[in-house]
Description:
7% of the residues lie in helices and 44% in strands. With 517 residues, the chain is mainly beta.
Amino acid sequence: MNASLLHTRLAILAAFLLLIASAVPKVAHAQTPPPQNSGGGIATPAPPRFRMLRATAGTKNVERNGRFIILDPRTVFHLTDDHKVMVEFEWDGPLGPHKFQGLWKDPSGKTVVVSDFEFTTQVSPFAGYFTMLMDDTAPTGYWTLEARIDGETAGTFSFEVVPGAATAPPPTVRIPLAATDLYQQAQAVTVSVEKLDASGSQIGRGFGFVIGPSHVLTAFGNIDGASSLRVVFPNMQTGVTTQIALWDRAQDWAVLNVPTQGIAALPVPQKRSWSVGDPCYSLSTSPAGGRLIVPGTIVGDTPQPRAGERIALSFSFSPSAVGGPLLNEYGDVIGMLGGNFLPGPGANNERLAPWSLAPGTPASAVAVPIELPTAPSANASSATLADLAARGVFIPSLQARNQVEYAELSLSLDKKQNGVPWPRGTQTEFSRSDREMVVFIYWNPKTKFKGTTNLRFYDADNRPLSQTSPTNINLRVQVPVATSWTVPLTSFSPGVYRVDIYLGELPAERIFFLVRP
C-alpha cells in the first residue's frame, strides 16, 4: 500500500472514531516531561493532568448504553486473519476543549501514522479509540500506540503483529444489553406483592420477582405482618398465597410458594459476579403507577454482622419497588432491592435511625445479593404466614396508628406554656450511663377509646423482653392527650431494641432505639 495513502486513511479514520467515542464517559496514564524554568534549570515536574484507567485492543467493537466495547480483546494480531487493530483508551482528566493525538509506532520505533483532532469533553472519565488498517505487508513484531492529550503523553499500549493465521479463535466478551432490553427482561419477571390483613384489605405493597417454578422472591418486609399475600403478575393475572418456602428475617428476604404461570426466571450467576463500580439496573415506579428503568452503579459492599452482605447503590428507589430485581448490564439477576439493616422496619413505615445503616448509605439505596436467598427445591417444606405470626417472627402491623399524632424518645421532658409536657430534644441512641429515657406519645384520636395503654419491649430478633403495667386512658375524638413513661436504661444490655406502644391490645406506634455501653 502507498505510504502516503496509508497515512491519510489512518489519520482520518482514527480521528473520526475517537471523536465519536469521546462523547461517552470513558478513559491513559499521563507522563509530562519536566518543563524548563526561565533560568535554564529543571523545574519540579507538574503532576499529570490525564490518567489512563485502561486500554484494550481488538478487531471488533460495539456500542451499548453509551459505551464502546471491544468484543475480542487481545494483544496478538495475525496478518492473514486480522486487517485492522483497534485500541480503546479510557482516561480520567479535566473537562473542556482538548486536542487528541494517536501515534502508531512500528517495531523499529518509527512513527508511521499521526492523527489528531479537537474535542470538548463534558464528563470524566472519557474514552476514545484509534484504528490502524493492516495488510499482509505490515511489519511484524511489537508495535506501540502512544496517546497524547494537549501534547501530554496520556498512555501507551503495545501489541504484537505476527505472520500467518491464528491457530485458535480469540476470546470473546459478553455484550451488554440495551436499556430497552433490560427493561423488558426485568418487567417480564417482576410481580407486585400485596400484603393483606385478616379482612382482605391491603396494608402494604412491594415488588417481587420469579426465581423458579412456583417460587417468587421478595423482601421479608413485604410479607411481615400479613395474613395473606396477593401476587399480581405482569399479565395482570393474580395468585393468592399464605405459603412461604424459605425466609430470613434478618437478611430481609422471603421466597413465596405461588404458581408462576410458566414465567421463566432470569439467569442467576453461579457465584458472585459483581464488583464495586459495575453498572446496574432496576425497576422503580412512576407517580402514575407505571414502571421505570433506573440505571445506576454499585458504589459499595457493606457486610453487616446480623443482616449479611449488602450491595450499596448510587440511587434510591421508591418503597413500592422494594423486593424487585437488581440486574447487571447483561441481564443477570445479581440482587434484590431492599435489605433493611434492621429486621422488619419498612414493612409498617417505621422510621430508620442513622445508626441502623452503613455509614453514608441512604435507607433506600441498598440491595440484598442474590447469593443470600437460595432457590428452594421442589420438595422444600413450607411455613404459612399464620405459622410465622404464631412463632413471633412477624412484627404486628400498627393497627391503632390513626390515634397517634406524634411519638418520640428523649432523655427528659420540658413544660410548654400550655402546660403540656414535651420531649426536650429527641433521639434514638442512648448510653447505659444515661440511666433512663422517656417514651412520649401525643394522641390525637380519630375514634374514642376507653381502656389502657402500655409499652412492650423487644430485642432485634423480635423476642419479647418486658412490658410496663397498663395505664388507664380515655381518648375522645380530636381531643389531644399526652402520655409519657420513664424507662430505666440500665435494664438493657448494649444492643438494638424496639418499643411498641399499645392501645388496649392493638399496637399504635413503634420506635427502634440503640443502647451503647
